[in-house]
Amino acid sequence: MSEFATLASPYSMPAALHGDVDLTDPEAQTRSRALNQFLAGVELKAFKIAQAALRHEDDALDAVQDAMLQLARAYADRPAQEWKPLFYRILENRIRDMQRRRTVRGRVIAWLPFRGDEDDEEPDPIAQAPSPEPQPPRRLELEQAVGALEKALGGLPRRQQQAFLLRTLEGLDVAQTAAAMGCSEGSVKTHYFRALQALRARLGEFYL
Amino acid sequence: MSAVNEPQTDFERNARVVLEQSLSRIDGRTRSRLNQARHAALEAAGARRTGWRSLTLMPTVGAAAAALLVAVVLWQRQPAGEPPVVEPQHAAEDMDLLADSEALELLDGWDGPFYEWATAQTDNVQSDG
Hints:
The complex is a heterodimer. Chain A is mainly α. Chain A is built from 9 helices and no strands. Chain B has a domain at 6-66. Chain B is 79% helix and 0% strand. Classes of the chains: A mainly alpha, B mainly alpha. Chains A and B meet through helix 1, helix 2, helix 3, helix 5 and helix 6 of A and helix 1 and helix 2 of B.
C-alpha cells in the first residue's frame, strides 16, 4: 500500500483546488479530500482489474472513469468504508456492460465487408514514456513474472479472475469481495480457490 | 489491511508482489488519464453537493418570491390618487332618491330643460321671499 501511495502522489492534487468544492464548508472539503484519497488509492488497481477483464487499455480506462463518476455522483455521501465494495461493484457492472457491447459489436463488424485496421496508429510518445517508479534490481525477473501472471490470469474464467484480483491485488476480504461481485461469500471462496489452483498449475508454486 | 486478509501461502504472497509490480509498469499516459478521471469525478461530486444544497434552499426562496409577487400585484392594482369620499349627507339623499318610487318614474320621462327651469323658478321665489 505504501508503495502505491508513492506512485500516486505525483499525480495527486489537493482537494481544495477543485472548482466545485465549497471552500466555506469544512465538511465538504473533508469529504472531497477523502474521496480524492480513496480514488487515488484504487485507480491503478482498478485499471489493472479492468484491463485484465477487457484486454483493452482504452476500454479499461473508460470503465474506471465511469465507475469513478458514478461513485462520486451517487455514493459520495455514503460512509467512506462502503466506497471500496461499491466502487468495485460499479466497475464490475461497467466491465460486464462493455463485454456485452463488444460481443454485439463483434457480431455486427463480422458482417461488414470492409474493416479498417485499428493497429495502423502511430505510437503515442507519452505512452512510451518510462514509469516514474525506480528500477528494481530484479526488474527483468519481475517483468517476466508479471507477463506470466497476466497471461495466466487472462486464461481464467471471469469470476475466478475477478475474485483473485480483488482478494490478492486490492486486498478485499471475503465479505467485501462478495459485495463487489454481487454473490455469496461461499461463491467468492470457491472462485478464489479454483483461481489459485489454476494459477498454481500453470505457474508453479514458486514461480517468482 | 488486516492480518486476516494477508495471503496465506508463498504463492499468494508472490502473486501479490508481482501484481503490485505490474502497477508500476502502467505508463504515463494512462496515469494521466486516470488522474483526469479522478478530478472529473471529484468535480461531479462537488457539483452534486452544490446542487443538493440549492434544492434544499428552494422552498424558502420560492416562498419569498411568491410573497414578493403577490405584494407587487396588489400594489399595482390599487388605484392612483385618493379614494372618493362619500359624505354622509349626500349618501342619505341618494338613498332617499333610490327609495322614492316617484322619483324613479320621473327619471323615466326625463325632461332636462323643464326641470332646470322649474328649479330656477323655485330658487328665485325663495330668494325673493
